[in-house]
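Next up, sample data.

:::
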Amino acid sequence: MKLQPFSKIASSTKREVSLQLTRRAERFQRHVELETLTICSEIRDRELAIKKHAASDDIDIKVLVDMMDEVALLERRARRYQEVMLELFPSNMEKTRAP
């Protein structure tokens, strides 16, 4: 991604600046949504691995706890992404939140 020089942004009209910021915000939102989906996919994969490990004949408690910690960290990260999005775009996120 190439950044625009500040001098160009400063010389733009208010409408142009608003349009540029809107585009950047939309790109950022799409990026965060993609990251969140990736994290959710990783959570599902790790939960499946936990179930397989728990069902195996040789269960290593350290490995099991480490796997559970990884899932907890990913869940926390997904929640944090949503919190950041809600803080940055409160009106957009309220529309997309489920009741």
Summary: The chain has a mean pLDDT of 85. The longest helix spans residues 14-55. The radius of gyration is 20 Å.
